[in-house]
Amino acid sequence: MKKVALTLAALTLLTTAQARTWAEIKQSGTIKIATEGAFPPFNLLKGKELTGFEVDLANALAKQLGLKVQWVTQPFDNLLIGLGQDRYDFVIASHGITPERQKAVDFTSPHYCTGGAVVTKPGGPMNAAALKGKTVAVQVGTTYLENVRKVPGVKDVKTFPKDTDAQAALMAGRVDAWVGDKFTGLDLVKAQKGKVVQGSLLFNEKIGMAVKKGNSSLVKELNAALAKAMSDGTYAKLSGKYFGTDVRCK
Ligand code: ARG
After folding, report:
1. 160 CB under 6 A from ligand 1?
2. Distance between Cα 144 and ligand 1 center (Å)
3. This model's pTM is above 0.90
4. How far does residue 100's CA lie from ligand 1's centre (Å)?
5. Largest CA-CA distance found in the chain, in angstroms, rounded
6. How far is the CA of 94 from the centre of ligand 1 (A)?
7. How far apart are CA 248 and CA 85, in angstroms?
8. Does ligand 1 come within 6 angstroms of the Cβ of 95?
9. Ligand 1 binding pocket includes 43 (Cβ within 6 Å)
10. For the complex shown, is ipTM > 0.85?
């Protein structure tokens, strides 16, 4: 984890090109947004269609800002690195706002609050203490990995490029537990109809959109658009559609 964070920070510092400022984005009329597209119900690429709470929310923010959107999808682990290379203007892919990541990028105000939860088969480990001696699957580059590593006594942490692959490892019985987002976990429990159960939260996190470090004009506009969406009912409507509840940070 340390190594990855240093690499991100180093890349950001080494890049001489400037990220597009708000004035430049506005003038071009189009904002370039990156996500993963493999993290339902937040961002999911189905055939050629991008869907999910974060996709709908970012589209609403762009509309509010008077911009067209050009979407880019990237493996999760590459997303913040691409910001440093000016490949897109911002990233919305459920990144928890952590001190490590803040060394490499800047975050907007949180667009939702959530936590990392343990999911297992009935009879399996349901909390941090029960993970002792167990094998756990997580998506690589995530706060799940960082936090499972802090749990004392875990036997093995298996990392997967995609969160859905980590879930599949649990379903196939190749690991004792999967640690992932609590809302994603609820969907998995529902879809698997009792074949898996959700245990405790290992940690809570605030999720934000990331821009290239120093791009304060863009952060300001995104924060203003988010605040507007949160006050005019746009946010509540989208949150209700995907979660049946309001997921904003309280
Ligand atoms: N919230 C977790 C983190 O901050 C997981 C994010 C995973 N996002 C994704 N698009 N796969 O690391």
Report:
1. no
2. 8
3. yes
4. 14
5. 57
6. 5
7. 30
8. yes
9. yes
10. yes
Tokens of 29: 């009329």
114-205 maps to CATH 3.40.190.10: yes
Amino acid at 224: A
Among 245, 189, 234, residue whose Cα is nearest residue 59: 234
Kindly list the domain boundaries of the chain, sorted by start residue: 22-113+207-243, 114-205
| pLDDT tens by residue, the chain, 250 residues | 455 555 665 555 555 457 899 999 999 999 999 999 999 999 999 999 999 999 999 999 999 999 999 999 999 999 999 999 999 999 999 999 999 999 999 999 999 999 999 999 999 999 999 999 999 999 999 999 999 999 999 999 999 999 999 999 999 999 999 999 999 999 999 999 989 999 999 999 999 999 999 999 999 999 999 999 999 999 999 999 999 999 999 9
- What is the CATH T-level fold of the domain 22-113+207-243, as seen in this structure? D-Maltodextrin-Binding Protein; domain 2 (3.40.190)
Q: What are the residues whose beta carbons fall under 8 Å from the beta carbon of 57, sequence distance 6 or more?
A: 92, 111, 229, 235, 238
Residue 45 CB partners (closer than 8 Å, separation 6+): 37, 38, 73
Q: Does residue 74 line the site of ligand 1, with CB under 6 A?
A: no
Q: Which atom of ligand 1 is nearest to 142's Cα?
A: 12
- Please, which residues bridge with residue 180 across strands? 117
